[in-house]
């Protein structure tokens, strides 16, 4: 089956490669993605089956970009709540048999 | 003069707040779902999610109060939300330190039925080839009583376990004798089609408080088609056996499970009506598993996840309608999930646990001495995949089996909090890892979640149950009842 390819460009100062990779993983059943760094640009090369119409392709591209925004927000939340998450976990396992005794 | 001060008087001087850990996902075109570390949820719009993260929430808004009360945010340095979340999380995880409650003894593989979707059974008179021996049973009981769990359930499975009833009697007597010293909360279940039940068996069950778990696939024609016997009387025998067992053991000592074949798909109302007609209080709508004869006979491929979801959703709609009309009836898979969504309890259902339930929620002693990590694991082994065969009860110790790399690697590698996509999925607190299913289909413990039918099925169910609750307060009340049972 023949394939269609497109390349999306992202500014490295705005998004991390990890953010875009995580977003691409969620689309693994729809397309494959390769990544390339070019100066301050992250190039995301997408390969998809050619049976997709132009409108389907545009929809996929829009959904992927929305997912990148979501992933970016997830990273902000995860980073900001890391300390309190560890605090909750340490309070959870305090004085339980699940805590490893040194 | 008003008895109370104005609302503003109660506002804290500092209107800032801190985020508590939470995850989010798109719920539908309009809204997002956010869930916290213990699975409490809220549906919010995208603008509100942005405002929440960027500290732009109106502190007098209803959403702000909801977020505080459900522990998505706290006032700076406020301690009680941390303590509440830790307490709920500890409750959810408490069963981990008391692992392996369910011990399945496959006392024989012989069976009087020849169901085309059955994963394991054999039509054979050759007892020596397919029956568990007393030596294996003794060694298995040694293993059972090494479990740290205060509650132990021994379930007899087959084939048709009643074809080796002598061994069941031996195991029950031996376990009770050991338990006089061990003092566990010991319970027994026989999983049987009821076709061979008789007075002698029922007297023994009554004496030892043994519960019966049986199979009912629907009305007579459907049941007989799914569960063929040479005399074509499976349903007739089931009904007669059910009546007899209820008379002798009590109404609530017998539960039933159904299996969905392609013949069931447009008969969900008839199936539920049959359960009602026969006096059951609920039904467990479950799809075929991708194991054993179900694959060999291509039954598993006869319908896809989407078709099964249609079947499940129609059934659930019908059950909700029945309840609205005053008929008390529940769907058990939904109830398990609702317990996870609406309470701090963990129901301990093997397929929906993380760490996975294999080995630590249930373990299987097979008729040939082999020990498997779950019922599905032995079915997978029947197909030639021995990934979850943990050892042999005759030659391996408790430590060899429970600390085996085979078990620990599968548990560790499938852990949802570190699995790609699962770790950041808002539905993760309600889900599980199911390494056996993923190994059967994808040949690794995790699978790729966007391609996983397990993921598709459960995500759809989570969303559907939440949508039903959010759109109708009576349904929410009904679901709260199911969750708290």
Explain what you see:
The complex is a heterodimer of chains A (102) and B (485). Chain A has 102 residues and is α+β, with helices and mostly antiparallel strands. In chain A, 47% of the residues lie in helices and 25% in strands. A 3-stranded antiparallel sheet of chain A has the order 1-3-2, with helices on one face. In chain A, α1 packs across α2. With 485 residues, chain B is an alpha/beta fold. Chain B is built from 19 helices and 15 strands. In chain B, the strands form 4 sheets. An 8-stranded mixed sheet of chain B has the order 10-9-8-7-6-13-14-15, sandwiched between helices. In chain B, strands 2-3-4 form a 3-stranded antiparallel sheet. In chain B, strands 1-5 form a two-stranded antiparallel ribbon. In chain B, α13 (332-342) packs across α19 and α18 packs across α19 (473-483). The chains are: A alpha+beta (102), B alpha/beta (485).
